[in-house]
Amino acid sequence: MFDYTPYLRTSRFPHIWCTGCGNGIVTKALLRAVEHSGLDRDRVAVVSGIGCSGRLTVYVDFDTLHTTHGRALAFATGLKLARPELTVIVITGDGDGLAIGGNHLIHAARRNLDLTCILFNNQTYGMTGGQVAPTTAASRLTSTSPDGNIEPAFDACALAKVAGASFVARGSTYHATGLETLLAQGIAHAGFAFVEVLTDCPELFGRHNKLGDGGRMLLRQREVTVPEAKARRMAPEDLEGKTVIGILHREERAEFAGEYARLRARLTGRAAAS
Amino acid sequence: MSATPTDGVRLLQGNEACALGAFAAGCRFYAGYPITPSSEIGEWMARMLPRAGGTFIQMEDEIASLAAIIGASLGGAKAMTATSGPGFSLMQENLGFAVFTEIPCVVVNVMRGGPSTGLPTSPAQGDVMQARWGTHGDHPIVALAPASVAETYTETARAFALAERFRTPVIVLLDEVIGHMREAFAVPTDTPAEERRRPAGSRETYRPYAMDADVPPLADFGEGYRFHVTGLAHDERGYPTRDPGVVAGLHARLARKIEGNAAGIARCETWGLEDASVAVLAYGATARSARAAVRRARGAGIRAGLIRPVTLWPFPGEVVRRWAPRLAAIVVAEMNLGQIALEVERLVAGATRVVGCHQADGELMLPAPILEALRRAG
Amino acid sequence: MQETARTKTPAIAVTDEWCKGCEICVLVCEERCLDMNARGTVDVVDAEACTRCMLCELYCPDFAITVQ
Question: Domains in chain B: how many in total?
Fold first, then answer.
């Protein structure tokens, strides 16, 4: 067994997430990743935005910061630059990260600051009652697309990659063990690591679209995802309607805090801290 | 021109003095977004900070700028941003976040003509009520209004001291004309750097929002306290709560923290009130014209006095209340259509007449209209 | 046969106060060790059949079940 309790603020449990919500599965994968990465828990900070994913921070025993809607990456940027030795993990959602927060995601990726950004994608705005999100698939029913969504959906990973993220991965709650590995790899990566996680909102999105309970929605993820290595060998028509998971992009690129330290060293004539 | 403060007299631009005053007070983190007429502040910080081991970052917008300095402050840094009206409007949400979570930082608003894009290179004082109430919800705020380049230096430095002492964002309202003017002054050689109170005990006993004092200690992230900060209404541990008693208590402590300590925060200059029959109340650049108007009025036989708030919030109400009953009128001169005038009216509660001398056309208010108002009021 | 950690009956612990009755653990358990009870939470009905696949613990969103 994995004992999560040393990492939990147990007085805050049971947590706020609905019956069958996938967010707890992602949180556990994250905690396992932190443990198996050997991180000093006094040097880990978790910064979240607003939404169901944003509620994660109160449940975990680190320095935690629950910020304003869409702005977690900007808060995290300041914290990381002031304290580059801390491991800063950012928790955001499909609305928090791609709608109101889209601009901050783009620039955080561009700068390649060493943050790990985990985007919980459940295709809906759960906290506010199940409205449409930038990642909601076409024709899906939500409280603000009651006649079927006619907007195209973002590919969050593609956006992060083009914006400059040097580590881009997608995981799912069904592939929880693989998710732990992706998160650990993202944390270890020296640069902006973006991990989109497919998770489920059975209470609202699931109910609106008759997708069944949490268990059904969890198992369905197996049907709609394809591992990256397999996807590479598949024809485009076979990938129709499928979502690719795994590490989608990885490169070694100059990391922002390190670059700024080099600038300081150059200007002050002192060697940059390693 | 050297960017580091030296002994002796220097000719400085207001914005430059703002940056130097911040630096002297220990500011080593700046995040900002360019906007006229504040951009020079960021430019000075971009040059000074990395050379002093600090950090400058130009963020993607003003919202991110304030977010970044709040994050940096939680890491233990003294942090500042600067903007003007449109950017100040964008910052309101995060300003409320910093107020409610009690994170020290300094936000400079070099005020320009508004509303909207307005007059980017012209002075105005139209943001003073916004500074008080711009962010939603009940909250106290601290806002300073320097009236000279020298005072910009010292009040920006004092902004940091107040932010640290009271665990609050502090707004510096700088008039465009002062931000962009140049004046010579003796740069102080010794600016005390105040530090926030950090917890002394263990993680287990730390309460980031303790109710036993007006200002709870604030730990830095990354020092083992592992505490929670949220914009939700919270209890002493920082955890979200909806308990009405706890929420009411939090609001009461926040109000007490600022309003209850107003005597130590508010600053106001007065001149000639002992024998005055009428007074001008003015702040920032307008106060300079008001001073000239009062002198001319005296020369014309009018016993005029001057009340110059240096802090706008908390407003130095005690000064106004003390002198109002002895005056026939208070002329409130401001480069807006009447904002602080509302506060003065509220405070005097009929003890004297409050006369407005208002101007919002983008021009600096000159002594003449103030003198005219004094004549008519006397 | 010597009883080792491997052969000992797994200790499956349910934190009843945290369980929201999502039934994911019941769904993923191939050996039918778990079932829902009248309270709407989970009971361990057959610990002996448990193979320590750990899927219930892996997938429980509520941190409510562990397998030793």
Answer: 2
The answer to whether residue B309 is domain-embedded is yes
Task: Count the domains in chain A.
Answer: 1
Question: What are the start-end ranges of the E strands in chain B?
Answer: 9-13, 29-32, 55-58, 79-83, 105-111, 142-144, 169-175, 182-186, 228-230, 268-271, 278-281, 304-309, 311-313, 329-334, 353-358
Q: Output A227-235 pairs: Cβ under 8 A, ≥24 positions apart.
A: none
Torsions phi, psi for A112 (to 5 deg): 60, 45
Residue B193 predicted with pLDDT over 80: yes
Interchain proximity C60–A24, CB inside 8 Å: yes
pLDDT in tens, B72-131: 999 999 999 999 999 999 999 999 999 999 999 999 999 999 999 999 999 999 999 999
Question: Would residue C47 count as lying in a domain?
Answer: yes
Task: For residue A262, give how far its alpha carbon lies from the nearest alpha carbon of chain C (Å).
Answer: 43
> Which stretches in chain C have pLDDT values below 50?
none
Helix (H, G, I), strand (E, B) or coil at B108: strand
Structurally, chain C folds into a number of domains equal to: 1
Q: Is residue A54 part of a domain?
A: yes
Give me the residue from C22, C57, C59 closest to A19, CB to CB: C22
Assess whether pLDDT exceeds 70 at residue B207. yes
Residues B312-324 have pLDDT tens digits of 999 999 999 999 9
A37 bridge partner residues: none
Clarify whether residues B45 and B181 are in a common domain. Answer: yes
Give the global pTM: 0.97
Q: How many CA atoms lie within 13 A of B233 on its CB side?
A: 17
Q: Tell me the pLDDT tens digit for each residue of B313-368.
A: 999 999 999 999 999 999 999 999 999 999 999 999 999 999 999 999 999 999 99
Taking any CB pair shorter than 8 Å as contact, residues of chain A touching chain B are: 9, 12, 41-43, 45, 47, 57-58, 61-68, 71, 74-83, 85-86, 103-104, 106-107, 260, 263-264, 267-268
Q: Find the domain containing B305 and state its range.
A: 268-377
- Is residue B155 situated within a structural domain? yes
Give helix B367-377 / helix B285-299 axis angle, nearest 10°.
50
Work out the angle at residue C49's Cα, subtended by the Cα atoms of residues C46 and C55, and round it to the nearest 5 degrees: 95
Of B174, B129, B182, B185, nearest to B37 by C-alpha is B174
Structural domain that includes position C27 = 12-67
Say whether the A–C interface has 3 or more Cβ pairs within 8 Å: yes
Do B149 and B25 fall into the same domain?
yes
Beta-carbon separation of A1 and C66 below 8 A: yes
Q: Does residue B208 lie in a domain region?
A: no
Neighbours of chain B (3+ CB pairs under 8 A): A
Q: For residues B172 and B296, state if they share a domain.
A: no
Residue B228 placed within a domain: no
Which 306-335 residues of chain B touch chain A by CB within 8 A?
none
State the CATH number of the domain containing residue A128. 3.40.50.970
pLDDT band at B279 (very low <50, low <70, confident <90, very high): very high
Interface test with A, best of B48, B51, B209, B226 (most A CBs within 10 A): B226
Is residue C2 situated within a structural domain? no
pLDDT tens digits, one per residue of A202-242:
999 999 999 999 999 999 999 999 999 999 999 999 999 99
Structural domain range at position A130: 5-268
Flag whether C5 is in a domain: no
What CATH number corresponds to the domain at position B117?
A: 3.40.50.970
Same domain, B20 and B154: yes
CB atoms within 10 A of CB B205: 9
DSSP letter (8 states) at residue A163: H
Residue A269: the pLDDT is 85
Per residue in A23-41, pLDDT (tens digit) is: 999 999 999 999 999 999 9
The CATH code of the domain that includes C61 is 3.30.70.20
ipTM comes to 0.97
Tell me whether residues A45 and B227 touch, CB distance under 8 A: no
Are residues A8 and C59, on separate chains, in Cβ contact within 8 Å? no
